[in-house]
C-alpha cells in the first residue's frame, strides 16, 4: 500500500491579468480628480469613493466580465460574485426607492452575479440584449473548434432597488395599511371612484399587483383616513405622523420612460470609427468602451435633469459623458491610471466642444 498521501491542491486564485491592453502610460498623473458643475471623476477604487458621492438615481455598472477584459477582471464567471459583492453592498447603502441599476455583462456573468444583487435588495426588471450583429464576428469563427454558436451579444439588465416602508416591502405595506383600516377590499373601488379595478390592481397580493399612481394613492389614503377605524389613524403614513402625499408616494419607485418603438433587443454594431477613443496613430485606448447612444438611452429612460448617475467602473467614462450631455450629474471612478488619463482627456474634449450654457 502506498503510504504517501498527497496534500490537497490549494485553491488557485483565478488570474486577473488583463489581456488585450493596447495602450499603457508610464508617466505619473498630473491630476487624479476632476470636476465641473455636472461631473466628478476620480482615479481610484470606486469602493473607496461611493461614500463621497451623492445618492444615485441611476447606477450604470460595466465592470468585470470574467474574460480578463482588463487588469483586475477575473478569468471566468465563477469569480464574479466575489468581485462584485463589495460594490453591490455599497450601492445598496446609498440607493433609494427611485434608483435604477443597469448591469452590463455577458449572459453567464450576469447569471453568476444575480443572486448577489437579489441578496442586497435589487429586484430584477428586465434583461436587454445588445446584438452587435454578424459584422462583429465577420465570419471568423471556427465553430467546429468552439462547438457553439458564435456570440454577438452582451446584456444590460435593469434592476430597481426594492422600496420598503418600516422594513416592509411596498406592496405588503400598502395592502397591510388597507387591512388595518377594517374596511372591505372592495371599498377601495369606491375610494378611487372606479368600478372594480382598484381592489383588483392595487390590493392584489400576487403578480397582478400594480403600483397605484400618485392620484389614486391620494384617494385611497384620504378615504382610509376618513372611513377607517379611528384608533388606527393615520393610515398610509411613511413617518408615522401624517398620511403620505401623492408626491411622496410617487418617489417610492424608480423612474422609467420608454421612447416609442424601443424594445429589449438593441440592434447596434460594435463600436468602431470616430466614436472609438484612440491615441494618435489610431490605437483604440479601451477595448471595452461602450456606445454613447446605448448609454444615453438607459440614462434618459431612468433619470430626469439634474439627477445623479453613478458610473462605478469608469473606463473612458461613457456613461458620464452621456449623463453630462443629458444634463444629469455624474460621479465616476477609474482604477487604472492609463484609462483614467485618457477618460479624462475625453471628458475635457467634451467640455470644450459642449460647454455648459
Ligand atoms: C468594462 S470597463 C468599462 C468601460 C466603460 N464602460 C467605457 O465605456 O469606457 C471596466 C473598467 O473598470 C475599471 N475598474 C475595475 N475595477 C474597478 C474599481 N474597483 N474601481 C474603479 N474602476 C475599476 C477597469 O480598469 C476598467 O477600465
UniProtKB/TrEMBL annotation:
One example GO MF annotation: N-methyltransferase activity
Gene Ontology annotations of biological process type: methylation
SUPFAM superfamilies, A to Z: S-adenosyl-L-methionine-dependent methyltransferases (SSF53335)
EC number: 2.1.1.-
Superkingdom of origin: Bacteria
Alphabetical UniProt keywords: Methyltransferase, Transferase
Positions of the DNA methylase N-4/N-6 domain: 71-341
Enzyme class name: transferase
Protein family: Belongs to the N(4)/N(6)-methyltransferase family.
UniProt protein name: Methyltransferase
Lineage, opening ranks: Bacteria, Pseudomonadati, Pseudomonadota, Gammaproteobacteria, Cellvibrionales
